[in-house]
User: Fold this.
Amino acid sequence: MTGCSTRGLKSHGSSQSADSAQSYTSGNTAQDGSYVHPTMRPYTVFGKRYYPTKVRVGEKFSGISSWYGPDFDGKATSSGEIYDMHALTAAHKTLPMGTIVKVTNLENNKDVVVRINDRGPFVGTRIIDLSNKAAHEIDMVNKGTARVQLEVIGFKGKQNREIASNKELQNGPQEMVSESSYALQIGSFSKIEGAIKTQEKYDSYKGYHTIIKDTEYNNKRVFRVWLSGFKSEDEARDLKENSPFKSAFIVGE
Assistant:
């Protein structure tokens, strides 16, 4: 089975992938005339209007998941990224691009954390279209679909691969911009939940802020927590030596 949804904008044998933004119609401005980021603009597929909506960390949704794979590998997603069937990503009709979602297969209780970077699936009541790798993680490839629960656990952009803290997300997804040059790595985790707990515990510590870096090490996903905002290596070293983070190490941003 090479894909199990029908996204509509392309026949996925599977689901959507919007031939980037050219396969559906969208507006450039909100009703009040203000600018709307391209990935948050309303769009129309098969005559139905969809409205990307800001969400908050902790929000949960449930429904049917499908997946898509080889037929779309290497092709553009709705966000403009190139689809990689071996990456932990997913498509959703309205969640903001960059939303980090924990997907739990309610039929076997397995879960996976994915980043939304595409639109779809445009089939029935399906709520999310997982990459091939993500579908493997929750053991739904052979069946094709599964009942799942989605939980929003963060937001990040593709370029800086950072996940913002809950404080920064009170008004929905925001782009994080750091002017600092150095940070302290204060933790690393295989599960994002542990990273988020550490991030929230030390955010705003002595005026600095925490970020999560989504990385890979030895072919495994690692979430690294950085205390960021240092203007120099000496500043970072001074705090390290006079804080609970004596085992932390200094990194360049």
Summary: The chain has three helices and 14 strands.
